[in-house]
Amino acid sequence: MSPQMIDPLLLSLWQTIHMVVVSASIAAVLGIPLGVILLTTAKGHILENVPLNRVLGTIVNATRSVPFIILMVAIIPLTRLLVGTSIGTTAAIVPLSIAAIPFVGRLVEASLKEIDYGLIEAALAMGASPFQIIRKVLLPESLATIISGLTITTITLIGFSAMAGVIGGGGLGDLAIRYGYQRFQADVMLATVIVLLIMVQLVQSMGNYIARRVNKK
Fold first, then answer.
1. What are 140-155's pLDDT values in tens digits?
2. I need a labelling partner for 196 at 20 to 30 A (CA). Which of 12, 75, 89, 159 fits?
3. Which residue spans traverse the membrane (predicted)?
4. pTM of the model
């Protein structure tokens, strides 16, 4: 790869990191409570609310069923409303976050379901409120698997961020399309693929390390 492409590559790398970190953070902040609500409002659980559970489940399933490339285009009006533009790194964060929130929600719900319900019953018998159970039983017991789920989400967002380049979202995907594909510069395409592979490996290794450190089992 020519020296002139180093600066664009570094800029694209920074844009990708920015998109992934911000969207993953938003997904964690909103997706973890969503997962808790999906579990605890189910029939027979501590905050049973079947109508709410069904509505949320339907919305989550509908959002997850839409391919990301279609979702990006479909919510362009919402993206413009929120950030004032539909092009660029900041604009790409909107569809990335919307795609990741229900994904995190389902992963968190699955993690919480693995907890032995006997622990919840014991906490109820000792007079714990539903919110105390969530804070002191559900989340601590499932922390390691939640972190693993967030790791999977972050890696998925790295792939989605590359797709965001198709509609001018910036990042490594945009660089690969503009130079690697449209200008037939195979070395640029190869460089972006290698950088993406390294990013995925680093995120996975870091996620595995943190999950092992917090795992109580």
1. 999 999 999 999 999 9
2. 75
3. 20-42, 54-76, 82-104, 143-168, 188-211
4. 0.89
> In this structure, what token pair is assigned to residue 19?
């998109």
Residues spanned by the domain of 191 = 3-214
Question: 110: exposed, middle or buried (C-beta count within 10 Å: 0-12, 13-18, 19+)?
Answer: middle
- Per the structure, the count of domains in the chain is 1
d(C-alpha 147, C-alpha 207), whole Å: 7
d(CA 198, CA 213): 23
Q: How far is CA 210 from CA 78, 106, 144, 168, in A?
A: 35, 21, 8, 34
Tell me the two tokens of residue 147: 């972190």
Low-confidence ranges of the chain (pLDDT < 50): none
